[in-house]
């Protein structure tokens, strides 16, 4: 529906009511993940996986975002959020939203998923319900394998309360000795064992019971609790209750004072083990006395305490989701290769014929790996440069870089050590690359390098030619199968020159580079996007075609949101596809009538960033690594790259964007009150699942 242009004299765009709190918006994203677990149309184990995703997401949210708010309260820093809330008010609002979701998750797991899994031959059993034969074989297994690993830690005047590591599962054990005196001990549930013990496997190794052809699992902590008499001989076990601690993982790196960034990051990773406790989860059956003892020793208040039904630590349900029962999972999908990049082709020759767009995971990531592998082997290649953000534990791309060094190429890699939760992995790769002779840079002081760029310099008969790969996603072969991303292979001379300037900026001191086609943060991206949006406003005011379509992971930046409000008031039609956090409030009279916000949540994680500007009929489209968040625009090295070939622009607009905006199976729309509503097909129409459509049509390219 079109709305007439309004005068640019608008309501106060600093009004807090025009902005949605970023923390609460993120919780709404995670609520959508939880609701996927409730979806009866999904295969059972995929529903279990969404429970694990929800739980893992929430752990990271507490480790980073909640911890940051708690730090502000602890240090009496009362920075008001754009929506007008203090840190204390945000913490209260977070708790109010999180608690019901935690109870809903457990209720659905117990009442819906476990019975349906049992009907399908997958049984998650409680120790109390096991047969005597099962208990006997588990005791033998416990004595042989678990008992030697356990370290009971008593708490008394001579033995202080032990350190509780982040996200570890622990049993709080209340005991009575031979003199009737109560004692307390902590037993850590070791994470070297599966959380869900395969009962059939235990029987095969320690018993004689036949394999019934069913999957039977029992919780590890219950097996330990049932055999504590072996750990505490001569004492009576009064209580064994599970608890779990989440600690602050958002520890700052003093980069300006660091003489060696790699060592500093290593120190921070170690220090995280001792961050303040931000959340304590306890089993609802835990006694008040033990609960109070834990709260006192962990130095938390009731606001950080979450009393929950078992099980705790439900991110471990990834184990269950990964068992080999194909009938309970999504059908397998094999990505296709673009017609322009058949298997075994000369990738550099293919790029010379024209720019190549790849839509992952529907199109294979293999050509990108081969881009590096062919560069490593090609005698005409002189140098390879790339940025590495989240690399993965096994990386054929890193192996190709190591091979390139052996073949005498010049290789430079920026390994971003500060990629949160991937620091240890990236440190390992950085050391391996350095030891092989790769020029390794760890990033720029004060900035994370989030750009996804690689550059191959090749000597050809016509002279030096630069081949560039730019992407919205990481050089990670695992996430390339589950994240949706856009990649571009090009040998455009100006983009090649820009990539060269960018790498010189990253490895040297070129702080004043002037890029011809790339939009690079933090130097130029914000001002460039401002100019592009203002150009649309001018087109609308002149009666020309004016439209913005932005697809991104998050929209948080207040100044960008205010400018989008101005564009809406000028009559610019704006469609936003925002997977996660969206602080913009659409549909507000006089401010954002012309703005619509949708999101998609399905089998694959939506990760691509696409920015379309109608530009009065001469459309421009950029893809890139940056969302419209202050951290991306101001505190990271990011790149947006133009899609120039007319056929590629048509594919992005008329296929990728158009299909996603037409989704009536997995889409939701953001309402002015900050809640989301599912998009349903019109009466008599079949629902359109955009991700399924891309899977079915991937071979068309």
Explain the layout of strands and helices.
Layout: H1 22-37, H2 44-74, H3 87-119, E1 122-125, H4 132-146, E2 153-155, E3 169-176, E4 182-188, E5 196-198, H5 199-206, E6 215-219, H6 220-226, E7 236-247, H7 261-271, E8 277-283, H8 288-298, E9 305-308, H9 317-321, H10 347-352, E10 356-360, H11 366-377, E11 381-388, H12 396-406, E12 410-415, H13 423-436, E13 439-441, E14 448-449, E15 452-460, E16 463-471, E17 483-490, H14 493-507, E18 519-521, H15 525-541, E19 547-552, H16 558-569, E20 573-578, E21 595-600, E22 605-606, E23 610-613, E24 620-624, H17 630-634, E25 636-642, H18 646-661, E26 667-670, E27 676-678, H19 690-697
Helix pairs in contact: 1-2, 1-3, 2-3, 4-5, 11-12, 15-16, 18-19
Question: Can you tag this structure with a few keywords?
Answer:
701 residues, alpha/beta, polyphosphate kinase like, Endonuclease, Chain A, ten-stranded mixed β-sheet, eight-stranded mixed β-sheet, globular
